[in-house]
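If you are new to this repository, start here. Below is one unmodified record pulled from the training split, so you can see the exact layout before writing a loader.
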Amino acid sequence: MDLQLVSFDEPAEVREFEKGRFELYLVGGMTLGRATYEPGWRWREHVGAATGEEWCEVEHVGLVLSGRAAAAMRDGPEVVMEPGQFFYVPPGHDSWVVGDEPYVSLHMLGSEDYAAST
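And here is the target side for that same chain:
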């Protein structure tokens, strides 16, 4: 594999949906993602509704860059993710933006399958 630089300004693919977008970047054999969600965004309403799913079944590992979002598991536990925090969110969750600031995060795991059919 050759030395490679990839710009945030040049995603390989952009998946857009109401109140959000998910940009994919192909870097060194990996697929990474950048999620940007507007206030009022909720996975169940703005991504899951298009597929008929109530819960996101994608496993995520990432880093919050700005804004805040909550993640709630099907079996009850809930957290709020904030800037500077790495996160692991297993399959079987819902998520939504908290507050009036857009939420932006980088995804190191789960990007290939996220919002693929919206």
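Two things worth knowing about this chain: The chain has a mean pLDDT of 95. The first strand starts at residue 13 and ends at 17.
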